[in-house]
C-alpha cells in the first residue's frame, strides 16, 4: 500500500475512493458496457497499462473486524488464490478509529498482466469484485461492479492512454 501512496498520492485505506483522491487530469473511467461492446479492448488495455517490463502489484481488502468483535468478517469476494499465483505478499492491519474497525489488507507483489486481464474479464462476466487495485510505476487500475477506474502517475500518461483507447 505504501507504493500506491508514493506513486499516486493515494491512501488506499481511506474512506474516499482512489478515484476521488486523484486529480481529474490523472484519472479516467471506462464503463463495463463499453468494455463488453468492444471485443479485445480489455486485453489490449491490460497489456498497455502493465507492460511486461514493469512490476505489477495487487492490493486488496482481505477482511475487517468491527471493534468489540472476536472474529473478522471476510471482505474478499472471489477466491483470489485461484485467480492469481500468490508468491510474495505482505499483510497490513489498520485500526481506523472513525469507522470503529480494524481493516486487514494484503499486497501481492509481481502478478502478471495476464492474471490482471483474467480477473477483469471475470468481473465483466458477472463475478463479484473485491476492493482491489493493480498498479505499477505508471498506472493504477481499480475494478468495481460497473466501471474500471484508471489513475496515472502523471497527466501525460493518462493522455497517452486516452489516445490509445480512441484508436482501439
3D structure, described in words:
- With 168 residues, the protein is an alpha+beta fold.
- The chain has one domain.
- Helices cover 33% and strands 31% of the residues.
- The protein is built from seven helices and eight strands; from the N terminus they run ααβααββαββαβββα.
- Strands 1, 2, 3, 4, 5, 6, 7 and 8 form an eight-stranded antiparallel beta sheet that branches.
- A hairpin with a 4-residue loop joins strand 4 and strand 5.
- Helix 4 (41-49) runs antiparallel to helix 6.
- The longest helix is centred in the C-terminal third of the chain and has 13 residues, at 155-167.
- The protein is globular, with a radius of gyration of 16 Å.
- The chain starts with a helix and ends with a helix.
- The model has no long low-confidence stretch (mean pLDDT 87).
Question: Descriptors for this entry?
Answer:
168 residues; alpha+beta; eight-stranded antiparallel sheet; 8 strands; 31% strand; globular
Largest sheet: 8 strands, antiparallel
The first-to-last residue Cα distance is: 31 Å
The succession of helices and strands, N to C, reads HHEHHEEHEEHEEEH
- Mean pLDDT across residues: 87
Overall number of strands: 8
* Coarse morphology: globular
Report the total helices.
Answer: 7
